[in-house]
Amino acid sequence: MTRYVIRRLLQSIPLLFVVSLILFVLLNNIGDPLTMMGGRNPTRPEDRERLARQLGLDQPILMQYVYWLVGNDWTMIDVDGDGEPETPGRRKGVLRGDFGISILTRGKPALDIIWERIPNTLLLMIPAQIVILVLGLGVGIYSALRQYSWVDNAVTTLSFVGFSMPIFLIALLSIYLFSVLFQRWGLPYLPANGMFDPQVGKTAAQIAKHMILPIFAIAFIDVARYSRYVRSAMLEVMSQDYIRTAKAKGLRRVTIIMVHALRNASLPIITLVGLDLPFLLAGAVVTERIFAWPGMGRLFLDHLERSDGAVVMGIVILLAVAVILSQILTDIVYAVFDPRIRYD
Amino acid sequence: MTTIEPPARIGLAGGDVEAPPLSPGQMAWRRFRRHKLAMANAVLLILLFVYSFGGAFVYSEAYANYNDTTKRLQPPSWEHPFGTDTIGRDILARTIYGGQISLLIGITAVLVQLVIGILIGALAGYYGGLLDSLLMRFTEAVLTIPGLFLLLIMAKYFTGKVPDITLLGRTYSGSVVVIVLIIGLTSWPRLARIVRAEFLALKENDFITAARATGTPNSQIIFRHILPNTVAPIVVTATLSVAGAIISEAYISFLGLGVQPPTATWGNMITGSTNYIEGAPWLWFFPGLLILLTVLSINFVGDGLRDALDPRSRPE
Known about the structure:
The complex is a heterodimer. Chain A has helices spanning about 1-25, 45-55, 60-70, 110-145, 150-165, 165-185, 205-240, 240-250, 255-275, 280, 285-290, 295-305, 310-335, and strands at about 75, 85-90, 100, 110. By secondary structure, chain A is mainly alpha-helical. Chain A is flat and about 85 Å long. Chain B has a single domain, classed as MetI-like (MetI-like fold). In chain B, α2 crosses α4 (about 90-125).
């Protein structure tokens, strides 16, 4: 097992290398970040040249990638533009935890900017994932145990609607109903914008209130997806011989379902959770935009729109690492849930 | 052409015993017809196509792009059944022309996906060895980047790099081509894996050994002997991918990085409507509903196709 994990980790190094190379080439051409640096006035040509040299943007792309990867503090860079490198570089490179500086925020390290958003995103996504898991399991198991009943048919149809739903439609509909119409009808209504009401302040109650609608929108779609998988996994397991044996032994129904069936049905569900785990960090791009939630998704959009490569690159690399780690974690959990699986 | 379909069975209905055996296509159609929800949704899908393409005979494109700023943000009325938008354009006419673009993007993006996915999957599965591991590592790398993030980065990358094109007397924003390309370029990995798995299994069959022994060139074995046997999973995946492509287009356009106005799509009609949730719900409701109906009907049809064409892959 340990050897398997180590091998997977080693295999992920070339993978991340390819990923970062693809992204670097793409992000090198997403627009001119220097235009934004003069603030209201367009950046002057002489400033532009100096800035490009300071930031290393005048270098060929392969050199820029090397600087991004391992830094440039081992060499001299040419800042004054006379063709003579004279200033020692200061970047450390991603391999030593330096993701470069954000051009948009005037030299703040990209990693710091990303780090500041992680709590907000987790605050939204972890409760959402818990709601999704609990409801998805509940609905899926229930409708599997009553296959072809009207509840099951209703759930199956609804789950099709759920995973065909574009998230902005359910988000806008829920805002219109619970925020706009409820207010109009004089009912207690939910806030639809931001993390807290600035007039009240950032209290726990405020944040909880502002979380309800975004979580509802995210959960609506994902509960549909999860319950479908849970239902079909449970249906397959319930027709197995060992379930009949358990029934014949006279075990309690709850025990059969929760212990014998669910544990065997859990592998496809674990796969699904493993695929979604990285999105706890990634946040929900569209949902965060609609609800003005200051998380990772919005950070990504804001900096992508203004061509701030370092931050965008940092976010996606962190996500790629999260994807790889959660794949490995999924494999480990497989082995825990199903002792027949061995990695040698 | 060689197939590994089992010999056709006699039809199930009692009176059919004397009838000639059914072809695989007829059998698939019988199975599809039994899936009532899929049939109903196939009809709905056809209606949506009629709405988008037939509607062009009712409203001209010039009318869809005509803006009358004195009639901004009007609620639905007889004159404007779906209301008007922020600069006074008729939303009904725009959902018609937007639907054409959204549906076309969905279909053409999947064509791009099919070409790349089949080619990579077939080459990796058929030749194996070093080529296989190189192609699969690349596939893995693309899968490691969360989809929407990669799409948005590529949308930003191509912004303004493709000029507007004129086709059949209509001008399309170059961003339409961009969206088709990037959705195609990011959605192929799953298909490539499916095709590769099929090729790995099929190439061990005797009819492939026979084809090789008679000196059939590799390209013919791949495209004429193996590929036709992988049609079922490819058709199912492609159908469901059209739904995915339409949603992807809607998300990118909604976020403002997709198809640029005045070309309408269901996605970019909703851009900016978040400012009018309260005042003008018709801005986002109708395009959003059309996206939902289209994606829903395609998903149902895809589900029915899976039952009809590829019964083994059914998880239940």
